[in-house]
Amino acid sequence: MAAPAATAPAAPPAGRRRSVTGTRRTVAVLFLLPALVLLGALVVYPIGYSLVRSFYNANGDGFAGVDNYKAIFTDDGIRTALKNNVIWVVFAPTVATALGLIFAVLTERVRWGTAFKLVVFMPMAISMLAAGIIFRLVYDQDPGKGVANAVWVGVHDTFARSSAFPNAHLGRESPLTADQGGFITRAAVHTGETVALPLVGVAPDQMPGDARKAVAAKSENGRITGTTWQDFTRGKGVGRLGTPDPSELGYPGMRIEAVKNGQVVASTKAAADGTFTLPAAADGARLRLPASNFKQPYNGVDWLGPSLVTPSIIGSYVWMWAGFAMVLIAAGLAGVPRELLEAARVDGATEWQVFRKVTVPLLAPVLAVVTVTLMINVLKVFDLVYIIAPGSSQDDANVLALELYRKGFSEGQPGIASAIAVFLLLLVIPVMWFNVRRLRREERR
Question: What is the pLDDT of residues 151-192, one digit of tens each?
Fold first, then answer.
C-alpha cells in the first residue's frame, strides 16, 4: 500500500503573519512596546524638544532662527569650551589607549599580572564625582594637603633646599639695613670684634629643628666673630634688644658674607646657636645676610591654575579609564595567534620589532574600538571638570557639556544650551557611526 503523500502546511492568514522566528508580530510588538515607550520618553522626545527649543529665544516665546547656533562660534566662553573639547578628544583617548596597550603587553609576561590589572582597573569602580573629589585634593596647592605638590616639593627640596627664614625682618634699633632682598651692616667690621646680627619675624613653629639657644660670641684675635639670632622674647617688656637672651634661639645655617668694594671676600654659615666666625680676609668689610636666606619656600606647582588645569583634569580621566582600555586590549591580545609572534622572533626580530610590526597591527581593530569609545566618552565629559576646576579656573577648563549646564541653569539661556546639546549630538553621531560600522565589520569576519 502506497504511503500517503506529505502535505505542505497551510500558510497562515495574511492577518496573522508570523515573524522569522515563528512569533506573531503582534506579540513581538507588545513585548517591545514598554522599551519603545521608554526609548521615546527618555531619548527621542528630549532630542526633539532640544532641537525645537534651540530655535527660540531665552524666554521661549520668540523665534530666534539660527542665532543660538551663531553664538556657539562667537561667544568667548563657548569657543574656549570647544577648544578644550578638541584638546580632550585628541589627548585623553590617545594617552589612555597607549597606557592600556603598554599595561596589557607588559602584564602578560609577569606572574603578578592579574593583580596589577586589578589595581589598574579598580578606579573604574569609582564614580566620576568621587574621582573628582579625590583629584581636587590631590592637586591642592598646599603641599600639606595635595599629594602632587607634596611629591613635587619633596623632589625640589632634595636638590634645592628652601630657606628656613622667609619672613625674617629687621627689628627695632637694628645694626643692619636692607640690601637687595637681604640685610647688611651699617658700618664695616674689623678683626677682633664681635658682631650682633639680630632679626625678628620667624614664627616659633617655623624655626629649624636644630636651632639651639643663642649665645653671645667671644672675640678672637685675627678673626671676626658674631651671632645671628631671633631677637625676640615673649612677654611685654621682656628681654634686651641687641643681646641674646636665654629664651632666644640662634639661626642655624644662616649664610653670612663679608663684602668689600662690592666683592664677597669671605663667607660662612652660622652654627646651631647662631654663632659664626670669619677669617682675617673679612677685615674692613661689611657683613651681609644675602637674600638667599629669606626666599620664600618652594610651594609646588599651581596644578589647577589657568595654564595647567585642563592637562591636570585629563590626567585624572586617564587614571580612571586606562584600566578600561587595558582590559579590552588584553582580551584582544589573548586572541592574537602566538605562532605569528614566535615566527617573528625566529626570523630574528627584536621584542620591539615584534611589538611594533606584529602585535600592534594585529591589535589595530581593538585599538580603534577603544579609542573611538573613549572619544565618545570625552565629548560628554562634565563631572570631572565641574568638580576639579576651582571657580577661578573654571572658565579656562570649560568644556561643551559644562557650558551647556552653565548656559541652561546658571545664566538662564536655555535656547543656547539647547543649541549646544544639538551640536554635541552632531559631534557624537559620526564617531558612533564609525564605531558601529567597525563592530559590524568585525562580526562578519
Answer: 998 888 777 766 778 888 898 888 899 988 899 999 999 999
Same domain, 310 and 288: no
399 assigned to some structural domain: yes
Using only the alpha carbons of the chain, give its radius of gyration.
36
Q: How far is CA 103 from the centre of its chain?
A: 21
The answer to whether the beta carbons of residues 67 and 58 sit under 8 Å apart is no
Please identify which residue in the block is written with the cell numbers 610651594: 299
Parts of the chain with a pLDDT under 70: 1-23, 161-162, 235-239, 445
Domain end position, chosen among 236, 260, 293: 293
Quote the CA–CA distance of 69 and 89 in Å, as a whole number.
22
End-to-end CA distance of the chain: 53
Residue 28 included in any domain: no
Are 268 and 324 in the same domain? no
Model confidence pLDDT, tens digit, residues 399-439? 999 999 998 888 888 889 999 999 988 888 888 888 788 77
**122, 180: one domain:** no
